[in-house]
Amino acid sequence: MTDVHTNNDPAKLTPREARSATPVKGMPYVLSISITAVIVLAVIGLAIYL
């Protein structure tokens, strides 16, 4: 795999490299907590504004 990636010279991955990603265990929790925090802050901000 190349070290520098540009639009003119995109990274060329082998099929094995492309499939080698592993899921992170805590990612669903982080995403759900982040989305909940954004919604709560938006509701609080809206309540303060109105």
Gist of the model:
The protein is an all-alpha fold and 50 residues long. The chain has helices at 15-19, 27-49. The longest helix is centred in the C-terminal third of the chain and has 23 residues, at 27-49.
Write the layout of secondary structure elements.
Elements: H1 15-19, H2 27-49
List keywords for this structure.
50 residues, mainly alpha, 56% helix, 0% strand
Structural class: mainly alpha
User: Considering DSSP H and I runs of 4 or more, what fraction of the residues is helical?
Assistant: 55-70%
**SSE sequence, one letter per element:** HH
Strand % is under 5%
Q: Please mark out the parts with pLDDT under 50 across 5 or more consecutive residues, or reply none.
A: none
Question: What distance separates the N and C termini?
Answer: 54 Å
Q: What does the largest sheet look like?
A: none
- Overall average residue pLDDT: 82
Compute the number of helices: 2
| Outline | elongated
Radius of gyration from the alpha-carbon trace, in angstroms: 20 Å
Counting DSSP E segments of at least 2 residues, the number of strands comes to 0
